[in-house]
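name: query_chain
kind: protein
chains: 1
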Amino acid sequence: MKTIFFSLVLLFCFGNVKAQTTLHKGNSNNHFDILYTVDDNKVYRGSNTSFTELELTISNDKIYRGDSQSFTDILYTIKGNQIYKGNSTSFTDVLYTVDKGKIFKGDSQSFTDILFTVSKDKVYYGNSTSFTDCLITIDGEIDPFFIAIIIGPY
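structure:
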């Protein structure tokens, strides 16, 4: 579950979510299967947008812990098509590379390093788009960077 959380955060970073977006477990669209809700650049656990469920705040190219925008609470930085650990943009701190609907591990774009595939409103494990490999169904609009952050770290 921690992996799903961080990957979704990455997806959100560069794209602006226009309205509330929900991320559901697997192929479900059921309200009871909501893993995360993204609203107004904030990520909440489950369907509740209460302060007590706030997990992440997205501001420009930074992802912060909770409701913070403090330098000490930066979890991820997005630059170009890559997601970095903390406030770094060093090549040694690349966690994910996002390219053409694929989320790769680290600085790689190798077929063997594909962690997730984003296709339409679904996120699949690896290079698959099979029904059985669906990890998340997205109800709304979200950027692939955000998905990488919520599902990771890997």
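note: Confidence is low (pLDDT under 50) at residues 1-18.
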